[in-house]
Amino acid sequence: MDLGLDGKVALVSGGSAGIGFAIARELLREGATVSIAGRDPGRLAEARDRLAAESGTEVGTRALDLRDTEAARAWVDDTAAEHGAAHIVVSNAGGPPAGPTGAFGPDGYRAAFDLAMVAHVGLVQAALPHLREAGWGRVLIVASETIRDLIPKYALSGIARAGLAAYAKTLVHELGPGDITVNVLAPGYTATDALLGGLEGDVEAGTARVAAEAGIPLGRVARPEEVAAAGTFLLSARASFVTGTVQVVDGGRSLGM
């Protein structure tokens, strides 16, 4: 299936590992030009080399913390200037720490909102002028299933990310007619470094325990490439009438409608 991404210029934050890396890989396979960003220069270089070796294409990198709004804006502007346009922005960042509501004071909540909401808004706002200029654009904000189905032990994640759905929906109406879409990707338990790093013993047995404890009907956690497949479709020309949505990829765990 041709997703209509050949020649598009894409920026993927959090692209050095996990879901971000998997989305960058899919975009390269579809013929897009890709730049990835992340906080660790070493991991970025490793990811760049892996992606370049697989795709036979150069991959741009930028070391930055997404919470640094000016650095994020410079990355977007520089990428658009280098390639003549910017069409796709994937806003992906780490999540707040786990814990119930009472485990954090006001400063903890402020930090969570800065990372899990405000940082995404900053990157999207930096990209929008370029998408408008190109006349075609896709915005994908990577959040968590907690945006749709609250999990008490991840209180900050659900609270801070809830506003992203409202932001995406509101932005869609502000953008109005045209070919720029805005969607939120909400993955559930996924075999990323964040999850795997907290396991003890055999990885397969550990992820099976996580799936059982979480009540995932499919009996396992997601692979990053499975989440990326859903995200890449939302970024494609094929998804031109899908906008303002929250796409949950959780193996059926959530019972919410």
From TrEMBL:
<keyword id="KW-0560">Oxidoreductase</keyword>
<dbReference type="InterPro" id="IPR036291">
    <property type="entry name" value="NAD(P)-bd_dom_sf"/>
</dbReference>
<protein>
    <submittedName>
        <fullName>SDR family NAD(P)-dependent oxidoreductase</fullName>
        <ecNumber>1.1.1.-</ecNumber>
    </submittedName>
</protein>
<dbReference type="Pfam" id="PF13561">
    <property type="entry name" value="adh_short_C2"/>
</dbReference>
<comment type="similarity">
    <text>Belongs to the short-chain dehydrogenases/reductases (SDR) family.</text>
</comment>
<dbReference type="InterPro" id="IPR002347">
    <property type="entry name" value="SDR_fam"/>
</dbReference>
<dbReference type="InterPro" id="IPR050259">
    <property type="entry name" value="SDR"/>
</dbReference>
<dbReference type="GO" id="GO:0016491">
    <property type="term" value="F:oxidoreductase activity"/>
</dbReference>
